[in-house]
Structure formats: C-alpha cells, structure tokens
C-alpha cells in the first residue's frame, strides 16, 4: 500500500507531497468500515456517501484539481470535522489536515456568503464585536424575540439558527492582572487565553479559572491584544496565519510560565495551527496548557474542596477526545471533590452537532445530533453534566427545556467548592 506520492508526481497540484500529509490514492482506503459507525453523519443518513471513506475520494479529487459534483460537495460540507475517523483508522490517514486543505481550495473557487464573511470579521475584530454586543443585550431585553421569530424575517435573512443561540453577553472586559490573594503563597504567573465568543458568553468559566489559579498560587495575566484562535475560520477554509501570529505576539511579550486555555476547541486549534517556524511560535506551543491538566499538575495537597454528594456526567468534546486526547484530566480533577461519583456520558464518541460553525451552517443536522446528546444527558441520571469545550456547552444549553440539566465547565463545579 502506497502512503504517499513522490514529490515529482503531483501533476502540478498545489498540495504537500513528501513533506506534508500524504495525498491518498483511492485504494489507500482499506474500506475496513472502522470509521463508519463512529461518523455522526452516517448515523443521521445511513448512507455510504456520508462516511469518511467516501469523502476521502472527493478530497483526493479536490487536491488533484479535479472537478467534483454538487452532490460530492454537499456530502463534504456535511462533515462536522469531528475527526472521530482518525482515531480508528488503521491507515493513520490524516483526515483533518486533508479536509482543511480541500476546504481551503474549495473556498477559493466559491467564496462563502456575505453573511458568513461578516460573521468571521466580527469574530476576528474584538472592537467590532464589543460595539455590537450592547445591541444584542438590548434586543434580549426588549421583548422583540417572539414577534421577530414569528415574522419569518429571520429565516429569510438566514439568521434563525444564530438568533436561537443568543444569550446575555458580558459587556465589560476582564482586568489585565489578577494577583494571588493574601491566603495563598504565589508560586508563579500564567496567562489566560480567553478566545473570542467565550470571552463574552462564558464569563463565569473565566472567573472560575482565575479563582482556581489564584487559589493554587498563580497570578493570572489576561493580555488585551489576544484574539480568536482561528478554529471557525479554518472550518470555513480561511487562513489562520494572521490570527495565530497575533496571539503569539500578545503572549510572547509576557513573562509567564504557561498559556492556559479553557476551551478544548481553542486548545486543539492552537496546538495544531501551522505557523512560522520561529523561536516565538515554538515557545507558544510549548507553553500551551489545558486548564484541567494545569490545575491537576499543580494542585496543592493542603487545598481541599468541600465535599459534595453528586453524580457527575462528563461530556467529552470531539476536540478533547480526538485531537488533544486528554479527557482523563477532567475525571482526575473532579475526583478532587470528596463524595462525588463521576461517569462518562453515554455515547461520548458521537459529536454533539456544534462543530464550530456547523450549528449555524447545518442547523437541521446539528439539531438532530443535539437532540440525541440532550437525551443522553437527561437519561443518564446524573445531577450535573460537564463539558470542557465552550462550543459544545453553548450549543447544548441553548433552547433546552426548563427542567433539563445545564452543562457547565468542570472547573466551575470545582471553583464553587473552594
């Protein structure tokens, strides 16, 4: 079986050959079917066209500058990029990298809609986003939601899916420095990566992280110059080089021991992003650390959380299971709380449907996956469900029933008991 192409045998196509991810020949896929059952879109449609082994054939065509049909493009676009297929593939096919290369080429041929472009710009530019958020808050308080939804205008503008996700944002920014309090001895200094949307819509998790880091003796710095990690841009075929370099510059200027991220989706993106091979980019990747892993590694023995008689279900995001592969840290960290019972959420290997911007671009598919995940949360009998990814929790918490459990970041649960 040939796992690559010779550098001179690429037919003039502009994709990596011997020094990059291999470009699969059709026969490279063993058609073993191991990727099929774990693919969320196969679960939805029960058709071979909605499997990684079929999509890889379309990806091969795109990377060889061959035309693909509208149906093939549709099946490619249906992919959630959860990368569950990578974890089971016996050929070790780098599906994620290949998919990103293909998506980038396709977007150059057919740019995204004006609405998608505007959304990406708002995510990219912090000042624009901050200027818009007071209007979002005003809208939520105005009572206009019901009449606007009923008018059908949101559907016509393709804003219905986005509007259903809107919740009250935090309008102010975080302070630049959070010093260790008098009760703890300062052991070091770390920087907090806040991301873009999470900075405003997941402020409670930010505060919990700062509280815990201070409690174990670490001063926390929140650089104003940081921005989006680029995950949503990459999912939409955009270059993330400028976003990555901006974040590297913002954090490299600080004297910190680690750059701590809270959302597994951001961590996965930042840890894999291709940037300039330099001293600064190398330092940045070495400094990246998941909040759960950092707390677990540096937790002082004398710090004892309050006991709680709780059953906790852990939802493992795709970015954590399939890319970072560090889900065990969540279980170990929560075990610091005396009296808790911690279990994995049933069917954790299946994507929740959020998929970066997938919840907006494919609301029907995402909604069906969300319904299944919500059913698992309700049916597991846990008192509390946790997720280490902002995107998953944001999506799964939207439009839930009044009695349905709300997902929270595991560190919020821990911070409440310190």
Automatic annotation (TrEMBL):
Source taxonomy: Bacteria, Pseudomonadati, Pseudomonadota, Gammaproteobacteria, Methylococcales
Protein's name according to its UniProt entry: Glycolate oxidase iron-sulfur subunit
Residue ranges annotated for the 4Fe-4S ferredoxin-type domain, each copy included: 19-50
Function, in words: Component of a complex that catalyzes the oxidation of glycolate to glyoxylate.
Cofactor: [4Fe-4S] cluster
Keywords attached to this entry: 4Fe-4S, Electron transport, Iron, Iron-sulfur, Metal-binding, Repeat, Transport
Broadest EC class assigned to this enzyme: oxidoreductase
Textual note on the cofactor: Binds 2 [4Fe-4S] clusters.
Record organism: Methylomonas koyamae
Top-level lineage group: Bacteria
EC number(s) recorded for this UniProt protein: 1.1.99.14
Gene3D superfamilies: Alpha-helical ferredoxin
Reaction(s) catalysed (UniProt annotation): (R)-lactate + A = pyruvate + AH2; glycolate + A = glyoxylate + AH2
Pfam families attached to this UniProt entry: CCG, Fer4_8
GO molecular function: 4 iron, 4 sulfur cluster binding; glycolate dehydrogenase activity; metal ion binding
């Amino acid at each position: 079986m040939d796992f690559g192409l010779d550098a001179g045998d690429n037919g003039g196509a502009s994709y990596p050959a011997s020094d990059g991810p291999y470009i699969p020949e059709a026969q490279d896929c063993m058609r073993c079917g191991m990727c099929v059952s774990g693919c969320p879109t196969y679960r939805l449609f029960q058709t071979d066209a909605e499997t990684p082994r079929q999509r890889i054939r379309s990806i091969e065509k795109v990377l060889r500058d061959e035309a693909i049909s509208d149906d093939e493009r549709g099946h490619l676009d249906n992919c959630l990029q959860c990368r569950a297929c990578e974890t089971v593939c016996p050929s070790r096919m780098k599906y994620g990298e290949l998919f990103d290369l293909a998506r980038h080429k396709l977007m150059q041929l057919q740019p995204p809609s004006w609405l998608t472009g505007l959304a990406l710009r708002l995510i990219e530019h912090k000042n624009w986003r901050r200027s818009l958020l007071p209007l979002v808050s005003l809208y939520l308080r105005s009572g206009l939601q019901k009449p606007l939804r009923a008018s059908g205008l949101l559907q016509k503008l393709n804003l219905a899916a986005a509007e259903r996700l809107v919740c009250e944002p935090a309008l102010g920014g975080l302070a630049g420095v959070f010093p260790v309090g008098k009760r703890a001895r300062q052991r070091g200094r770390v920087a907090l990566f806040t991301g873009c949307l999470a900075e405003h819509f997941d402020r409670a998790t930010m505060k919990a992280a700062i509280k815990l880091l201070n409690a174990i003796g670490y001063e926390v710095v929140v650089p104003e110059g940081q921005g989006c990690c680029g995950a949503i841009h990459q999912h939409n075929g955009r270059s993330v080089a400028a976003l990555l370099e901006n974040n590297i510059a913002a954090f490299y200027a600080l004297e910190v021991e680690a750059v701590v991220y809270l959302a597994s989706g951001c961590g996965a993106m930042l840890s894999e992003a291709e940037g300039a091979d330099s001293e600064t980019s190398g330092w940045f990747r070495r400094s990246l650390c998941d909040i759960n892993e950092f707390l677990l590694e540096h937790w002082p023995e004398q710090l004892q959380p309050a006991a709680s008689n709780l059953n906790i279900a852990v939802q493992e995001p795709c970015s954590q299971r399939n890319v970072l592969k560090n889900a065990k840290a969540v279980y170990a960290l929560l075990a610091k709380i005396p009296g808790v019972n911690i279990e994995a959420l049933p069917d954790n290997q299946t994507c929740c449907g959020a998929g970066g911007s997938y919840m907006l671009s494919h609301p029907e598919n995402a909604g069906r996956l969300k319904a299944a995940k919500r059913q698992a949360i309700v049916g597991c009998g846990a008192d509390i469900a946790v997720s280490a990814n902002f995107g998953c929790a944001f999506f799964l918490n939207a439009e839930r029933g009044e009695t349905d459990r709300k997902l929270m970041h595991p560190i919020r649960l821990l911070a409440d008991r310190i």
